[in-house]
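Please, is this right?
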Amino acid sequence: MTSGFNEIKLEENGIKIVTLIFREKLTKEDYELFVPQLEGLMDQEETIRILVEFQDFQGWTLGALWEDTKFGARHFHDIDRLAVVGDRQWEKFLTGFIKPFTTATVRYFDSLEKEAAKEWLKGEQRSDAA
């Protein structure tokens, strides 16, 4: 099985934005790859902004869901903004579902709006409507 985690990128144009690209199905092993990298970046910053891009995303294994739950509990206050880019209705629903589990401002963007998602992440005001 190929990895569901594809890459992690960091953009530093005044504001640090971490991009996570997820393909196919995320596994516990995927979380073991990217979480330490992400937590290393979080150790360097007060809060971070994250762009999650779903590409042909099929969901999570049970082990990955558990890892995601643990990550969310540990980093409830560490993410300032979270933009989710996808092309499926359930991905949009998921974005609304996670809002109560983070203090981040969370917003969904259609896959054709990827550049708009990046621009929103670069914005200055935390109180943007989501």
Remarks:
- The domain at 5-122 is CATH 3.40.50.10600 (Rossmann fold).
